[in-house]
Amino acid sequence: MSPLLRAEAVSELERAVGADVAELAAPVDWYHTQELIAGVETPGMFDLRPLVDRYGIPEDLSGLRVLEIGTFEGFWAFELERRGADVTALDIDQLQHLDWPPRARPPEDGIRGDGFRLVKELRKSNVRRVGISVYDATRERIGETYDLVFCGMVLIHLRDPMLALERMAALCHGRLILCEEYSRRLDLIPGGGGAEFRGCSPWMTWWRPNRRTWLQMVEVAGFENPREIDRFKAPFTSGKSGVRSVVIHADHPASGLFERHR
Ligand SMILES: C[S@@+](CC[C@H](N)C(=O)[O-])C[C@H]1O[C@@H](n2cnc3c(N)ncnc32)[C@H](O)[C@@H]1O
C-alpha cells in the first residue's frame, strides 16, 4: 500500500477544504492513519486507533501540560489534546537530523513536519510543535517541566536511548508513558536482560531491548516505579506482521536528582 494519499482522497480534500490544502497533503509520506476530514483518512504505515486504550492514558487530562516526544504527524498529540491537555509536541525538522546508522544515511535532506502542520490546521488544534531533537531537549532549552511525558516508538531509533530518557526525566514532574518495541527472543531467557543490536536492519532501528531491560533503562534514567501496563503487536496497515510493543508507565523522579546530574 502506498503511504501517499490516493487521487480520490486528494480530490475529496480539494472539494472540502480547497486546492491549497490538497496540494500540501498529496506528497506527505504518512506514518499514522488518522482522519483529515470526515471520510478522508491518511494511509499511514500504522493505524493505532484500535490500540489507543492499551496505553493507559488517563481519560481526563484537563489542566495538565503534556510533552509528546517524536510526534510525526501528531496522532498522539491530538489524542492527548482531545483529552483536555495543553500539548507540546517535539520532533526533528530535517531528515538528516534522524540518528541514521552511517551506512543507511540518505544523501539528500528533507523537511519534516508538513504532515503535522496540515493535520493541525485541519483540526484547528492548539498543539505547539517544537522542532528539536530529544537529545537537545534540556530544561534550559524547553523552559518548563510537564505533568506527563509521552513517548512512542522513538527510543528504538536512537543511538543513545539512555540520553533521551534522561532528557525526558528532567522534563517530567509527573508521569512517563512510554511505548517501545521489545525483543520477544530475549524475553525467553529466564531472568535475563539485554538488547538486540539492530543497526543492520532496514528499519533504521538501533536497539531492541527486552521488557525487563526497558524497565531497567527507565529506572536508571531517573524515573521511579517503572511498570508494564500492557503489550501487544501493532500491525502494519500493509497487513504484513507487526511490531511487538510494550507500554511502560513510570513516575516523576526524586526531587533534586537532576540538579546533580545535569
Ligand atoms: C516511529 S515514529 C513514532 C511516531 C509516534 N511517536 C508513535 O508512537 O506512533 C518515530 C518518531 O520519532 C521522531 N524522532 C526520531 N529521532 C528523533 C529525535 N532525535 N528527536 C525527536 N524526535 C525524533 C521521528 O521523526 C518520528 O516522528
One letter per element, helices H and strands E, the order comes to HHEEEHEHEHEHEHEEHEEH
Q: Are any ligands bound, and if so which?
A: S-adenosylmethionine
Helix % is 25-40%
What is the CA-atom radius of gyration, in angstroms?
Answer: 18 Å
State the CATH topology of the largest domain. Answer: Rossmann fold
Strand content: 15-25%
The parts where pLDDT drops under 50 for at least 5 residues are 255-262
Oligomeric state of the chains in view: single chain
CATH class of the largest domain: Alpha Beta
Total individual domains? 2
CATH architecture of the largest domain: 3-Layer(aba) Sandwich
Provide a count of the helices: 9
Protein traits:
single chain, 262 residues, alpha/beta, Rossmann fold, 2 domains, two-stranded antiparallel ribbon, 9 helices, 25% strand, globular, binds S-adenosylmethionine
Tell me what the structure shows:
- With 262 residues, this protein is of the alpha/beta class.
- The protein has two domains: 45 residues, no CATH class; 201 residues, Vaccinia Virus protein VP39 (Rossmann fold, 3-Layer(aba) Sandwich).
- Helices cover 26% and strands 25% of the residues.
- The strands form three sheets. The protein has a seven-stranded mixed beta sheet. The protein has a two-stranded antiparallel sheet with strand order 1-2. It has a two-stranded antiparallel ribbon with strand order 8-9.
- It is globular and about 55 Å long.
- The C terminus is likely disordered.
- The structure holds S-adenosylmethionine.
- The site of S-adenosylmethionine has 21 residues, from helix 3 and strand 4.
